[in-house]
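Blinded run. Sample ID left blank on purpose so nobody reads anything into the name before looking at the predicted structure. Input follows.
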Amino acid sequence: MNTDIQKATDKIKNASLCINTQKNTIAQLQKQTVNIDEAIGRINTTLLDIGITGFQIEKDEEHFYKITRDEKNENVFVSLSEGEKMIISFLYFIELCKGKKSSSEIDRKKIIVIDDPMSSLSNIYVYNIGQIIKDEIIKQKKKKGKNIFEQIFILTHSLYFFYEISD
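Blinded prediction complete.
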């Protein structure tokens, strides 16, 4: 009887070791897929694509961003307009929707809620923001034949923005 209990205990220990080994392997592999440099590059490219050249995003530490301007790099965030802050936040949100915050985060379907992204922006950005949402969220909803976003909600007061998104 005791030998049966000992055998079962040994099997549980071995299974636990295998599980922990697999978790470590998964974490190491996921570290290779979480790439802050790619996200920074995509945000900076998008800023240039929509005509914003007054600031850019740079890597600050291992997993952090910072906003820099050509002429000064200290306390840049407070010098940004509400619209510029909104664009940076929005582009970061888009990158977060497509990826993960950390390498240990597991893959799961996401529900995306975008609440009136035009509220603090100039009307010249309606088309740009609409295209970003369509290209990065709506068209990317399916990857490799499966949905990566469970649902997408876009709320707006702007009829023009509504028409741009629904086109």
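Unblinding after everyone has recorded impressions. DSSP finds five helices and six strands in the chain.
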